[in-house]
């Protein structure tokens, strides 16, 4: 679980991600930042609660996923991924005011976290890896690919 927004600047990527380890700063360059300006990027897990009602809606919207068979940590990560990509479900998460790009960065983070958690329980899975790549095909036009790489690094370190 992490406890703060990820922030990007020209000098650092302050991550407060902790999935069993201490947060680690990730140095990056961000061409859109002056070094003083901070860009809020990833929404903290505690601000993305998955209620039983939302999980029920997800089960109805994506019946091909056997939600109840997933381990809790994997199910919550996948639920965040799906809900962040759907404007209607983002409203239920309470993050309906975020831009499409911020929703995308967060959804991409959560599909990568899901893949890592799922594969920790079940071993390598090419289908899950392929789904992670397919998310990139749905990126909004204004996505910054350097930020996408930073998001992937943050998910990997978690």
Write a structural description.
- There is one protein chain.
- The protein has 158 residues and is mainly α.
- It has one domain (47-157).
- The chain contains six helices and three strands; from the N terminus they run βββαααααα.
- It has helices at 52-61, 72-85, 87-93, 100-122, 126-137, 145-157, and strands at residues 7-8, 13-14, 39-40.
- A three-stranded antiparallel sheet has the order 2-1-3, with no helix packed on it.
- β1 and β2 form a beta hairpin.
- α2 (72-85) runs antiparallel to α4, α4 (100-122) runs antiparallel to α5 and α4 (100-122) packs parallel to α6 (145-157).
- The longest helix has 23 residues, at 100-122.
- It is globular, with a radius of gyration of 15 Å.
- The relative contact order is 0.16.
- Residues 1-38 have low confidence and may be disordered.
The gist of it:
By secondary structure, this protein is mainly α. It has one domain (47-157). It has six helices and three strands, in the order βββαααααα.
Global geometry: globular
Q: Radius of gyration over alpha carbons?
A: 15 Å
The ordered H/E elements are EEEHHHHHH
Largest sheet: 3 strands, antiparallel
The number of helical elements comes to 6
| Approximate helicity band | 40-55%
Number of strands: 3
Helix-and-strand structural type: mainly alpha
Topology of helices and strands:
Elements: E1 7-8, E2 13-14, E3 39-40, H1 52-61, H2 72-85, H3 87-93, H4 100-122, H5 126-137, H6 145-157
Antiparallel strand pairs: 1-2, 1-3
Helix pairs in contact: 2-3, 2-4, 4-5, 4-6
